[in-house]
Amino acid sequence: MCGIIGYIGGRNAAVEVYEGLKRLEYRGYDSAGAAFCDGDKLTLIKKRGKVEKLLPHLKSVRATIGIGHTRWATHGVPSDVNAHPHSVGNICVVHNGIIENYAELKAGLEAEGSVFLSRTDSEVAAHLLNKYYDGDLLYAMKMTVGKLRGSYALMAVCKGENKIVAACNKSPLIIGYGFGENYCASDEPALAGKCETIVVMEDGDLAEITAESVAVYNAVYNCELQSVIREPEPNLAVSADMSTGDCPHYMLKEIREVPESVLSTKRAFSGIADKFKTAVSGAKRIIMTGCGTAYHAALIGKRYFESFASIPVEVETAGEFRYKDPLINEDTVLFAISQSGETADTVEAARLARSRGAKIVAVTNSHRSQLNRIADIVVPVAAGPEICVAATKSYTGQITALYLCALAFAGKDDGGIIEYAAGLCRDVVKNTNVDKLAHMCARSRGTYFMGRDLDYAVALEGSLKLKEISYVPGDGYPAGELKHGTLALIDRRTVSVFVITDKELAGKSGNAVEQVISRGGKVAVVTNVKGLELPQGVSEVITIPECDKFLSPLLSVIVLQYLAYRTAVLLKKDPDKPRNLAKSVTVE
Ligand code: M6R
Asked: How far, rounded to the nearest angstrom, does the alpha carbon of residue 42 sit from its chain's CA centroid?
C-alpha cells in the first residue's frame, strides 16, 4: 500500500528515486510523485497515473536529495493534487499508512489558519511538520509523530537542510547504507543492487539520514528522543530477481517459477523442522488466518492438519478474526499466513492472538516482515520475490509449507513426495494450454469455479485470480451448493469451471456438471481423475497429471492461474497491475 523511497548522496537523486519507485510500484500505482532538494532549490513533481508519468518531468532534475512516493489511494481519489509528496512551506513529505485521527488534526490546523489542498489524510503531516519546524527537521518530525494515531512510514525533506528525516510506526521502512550515500525505502527489493547493508526501522523509530551518517532514535515511551542501535543486516534482495526475464509479464514468469517455489520451500522447511515441532508441541487448538489468497491456502492447510494429525483447525479471514473477540489461550497456535508478512489485518490478528497467549507461526515469503517479528517461529515460504499483484508461486509455496507443517506436527515426513509433486508441477507449467477456455471466459457474462473439498478451496483461488486481473465477474462455490441458489445464474453466457481431482468425489461433481449443462451453461473441467465420465456437452477438458489428492491443488491451481493470465491478456488488461489493487495491503 504505497511505496516510498529516499536518496541522499553524490548521484543524481532523480535517477535513484525513479528507479526505486519503479521497483516499489507493485505497492500502488494510481499516482506518483517526488521532491528534490539541491541547496536552496526545492522541486516538487506529482502526477496521476503510473510512475513512468514522472519520467519526462525528471529529465531536467539534478539533485543530491530526493524522496518519492507511489500511491494506492485510501483517502481522496487518484489525482495530481492528492499525489504525494505533500508540501507546506519549505517542507515536503511522503507517507505510507493511514493517519486515523487526521480529521481531528485537520480541523485543529484549519482553525489555526492552515489551508489544505488535498483530500488525503497524509497532508496533515506536512502541515504539522511546517508548524513545528524551527530550523530542526528531526525535532519537527518528533513533534509531528507525537500527534499522529494510526500507521505511518514518513520521509521528509526541507529546503536548506542537507538530510532526510524518516519515522515509522506499523508501516515498514528500511534504511540502506552506501558509501557516501544512503537510502531509505519501504522494502528491500527497492534497494536491490544499491545497498548491501540495511537496517530495519522499528515501530516508533525516527531517523536522520545524511550522505555520510545515519542516526536512529526512538521516542515511543519517552518524550525525549533516545538514540538506539539497530543491527545492520545484509540486503537479501537481488536485482536480477526484479526483471521479467524472457516473459512479457511478471505473472507469467512467476507461474513458471511455481515448481521452484515448491522445491525451495521444502528445502527451507528442512532447516526449521525441529524448531517448528518444538514450538507447536502441545498445541490443543489451531487457528489459521490470512487474507485473499493466503486465506485460501489456509483452507487447504486446515485439511492437512485435520487429516494428518487429527487436530481440529479453524480458519478465519484475518479481517474477521481480529474483530470477533476470539477465544484464545496458551494452548492455541495461530498460523498467520501472508506472502508479504505486512498485511495489516493479518499482522493485527497475530498481535491480538499473541496478546492473549497464543503461539504465533508466521508463514511468510518475506525475510523481514512485521509478521516475522511478532511470531514465535517463522515457517519460510521460499518463493522468491513476487512482484505481480496476483499471488501465484507464493500460494503454491504456502500450500507446500502447510503440508510439511502438518506432517511434522503428526511426527511424519514427506518421504520425497514434494520433489515428485514439483516435477509434476513442471509438467503442468510446460504442457498446459488454456487458450480455448480463456476465450470462453473473456466472452462470458459470469464465471463460476466449483469443486468439492480441496478442489473447492482451489476453485475459490481460481475465481479470485480471474476476477482480480481480468475483471470478468464470477465466484467460487462448493459444487454441492450449486443447486441451492447459484444455479439461477447459469445460462449460455456463463462459464463454469469444475476442478475434479478427488476420485471419490468425482461422481458427485459430475452431477453438478450435468445440472449446469442442462441449463445451457458452458462447462470446462480441470481433472486428473483417470476414466472420469463426463456428460456430453462439456466444452473443454484440461487434464493434469495424476497425483496424491492432497497435493493435487499444486497442479490444478497452475491451470487456473494460466487461465486468469491468458484471459487478462486477451482482454488487454495489465495482469501485473490490476486496477484498484496493490500487492501489499498495509492498511485496514
Ligand atoms: O501479502 P499477503 O499474502 O498477506 O496478501 C494477502 C492478499 O492481499 C493477497 O493474497 C491478495 O488476495 C492477492 N492479490 C490475490 O492474488
From this structure: 34
Measured by CA distance, the residue closest to atom 14 of ligand 1 is 390
Ligand 1, atom 6, lies closest to the CA of 291
Helices and strands, number each (H, E), in the chain: 17, 25
Residues in the chain: 588
Residues with Cβ < 8 Å from 249, sequence gap 6 or more? 388, 565, 569, 574, 575, 576
Q: Is the dihedral of CA 583, 245, 423, 260 positive or negative?
A: negative
CB-based contact 305:353 (threshold 8 Å)? no
Question: Which helix (DSSP H) or strand (DSSP E) does residue 347 occupy?
Answer: helix 344-355
Helix (H) or strand (E) holding 354: helix 344-355
Q: How far apart are CA 588 and CA 586, in angstroms?
A: 7
Active-site residue list: 2, 583
Atom of ligand 1 nearest to the CA of 391: 16
Give the Cα separation of 248 and 105 in Å (integer).
Answer: 46
> By C-alpha distance, which of 48, 44, 51 is closest to 88?
44
* Ligand 1 centroid, distance to 117 Cα (angstroms): 33
Q: How far is the CA of 167 from the centre of ligand 1 (A)?
A: 26
Q: Ligand 1: distance of its center to the CA of 66 in Å?
A: 30
Distance CA 216, CA 201 (A): 8
Q: Which alpha helices (H) appear in 381-494, and where do they start and end?
A: 393-409, 417-431, 435-443, 454-470
So what's the pLDDT on residue 222? 52
Q: How many CA atoms lie within 13 A of 320 on its CB side?
A: 11
Model-level pTM?
A: 0.91
Name the stretches of the chain with pLDDT < 70.
220-223, 240
Mutate to test the pocket of ligand 1, among 27, 29, 186, 291 (most ligand atoms within 8 A of CB): 291
Query: What is the CA(34)–ligand 1 centre distance, in A?
Result: 27
Atom number of ligand 1 nearest to Cα 364:
3
Q: What would the grid cell of residue 379 be?
A: 515457517
**Residues flanking ligand 1, CB < 6 Å:** 291-294, 338-340, 343, 346, 389-391, 464, 468, 584-585
Q: If you write DSSP's letter for every residue of 109-150 in order, what string do you get?
A: HHHTT----SS-STHHHHHHHHHH-SS-HHHHHHHHHHH--E
